[in-house]
Design brief:
Shape: globular
CATH superfamily: PCu(A)C copper chaperone
Number of helices: 2
CATH architecture: Sandwich
Distance between the termini: 16 Å
Number of domains: 1
Order of helices and strands: HEEEEEEEEEEEH
Structural class: mainly beta
Helix content: 10-25%
Length: 167
């Protein structure tokens, strides 16, 4: 199976797992601004003394024109960067992925092993069951403030990316 097909399977499994975790209901806490809808928002809990975390979501664009996620920020961290995990010769590496284009009438899934928001130099630990506000900055939609659910476990379907996948 080609890398693009592996990626499509992973993204589908991630989206299905998120929907199943919500009992098949749409996320009642979707955040919508203009044509952009942000749903399935999760951020990992802090791990011991590690001062970093990662956030995941689904961004949908119902408009006739693409939009771009150009930046993100939160009060909880010194910086928030848009990253993508890549597998190169068996080693996982991260690279900057900003800006991320959200296609017209399409969506982009941020998931473990792929696109994610990297929260660096956390100011305090992120505890299971809490919420963390993150502000997303779009080229067309402007700023979108969304509350992310803090979770120790991110859906298993997305936790193990297949080799050779990219966004």
């Amino acid at each position: 199976m080609a890398a693009a097909s592996h990626r499509a399977v992973l993204v589908s499994l991630f989206a299905a797992t998120i929907l199943a975790a919500g009992g098949g209901r749409a996320d009642p806490h979707q955040v919508k601004k203009g044509d952009i809808t942000v749903s399935s928002r999760m951020v990992r809990t802090s791990f011991g003394g590690t001062p970093n975390s990662a956030a995941y979501m689904v961004i949908a664009n119902s408009g006739n024109a693409p939009d771009e996620l150009v930046a993100a920020r939160c009060a909880c961290a010194a910086s928030v960067d848009i990253h993508e995990t890549e597998d190169m010769a068996g080693m996982s590496t991260m690279k900057s992925a900003a800006p991320v284009t959200i296609p017209a009438h399409g969506q982009v899934v941020f998931h473990p092993g792929g696109l994610h928001l990297m929260l660096t130099h956390l100011k305090e630990p992120l505890a299971e069951g809490g919420e963390q506000d993150i502000t997303l900055v779009f080229q067309r939609a402007g700023t979108v403030r969304a509350s992310f659910h803090i979770r120790a476990q991110i859906p298993v379907a997305a936790a193990a990316p297949m080799r050779g996948m990219s966004r």
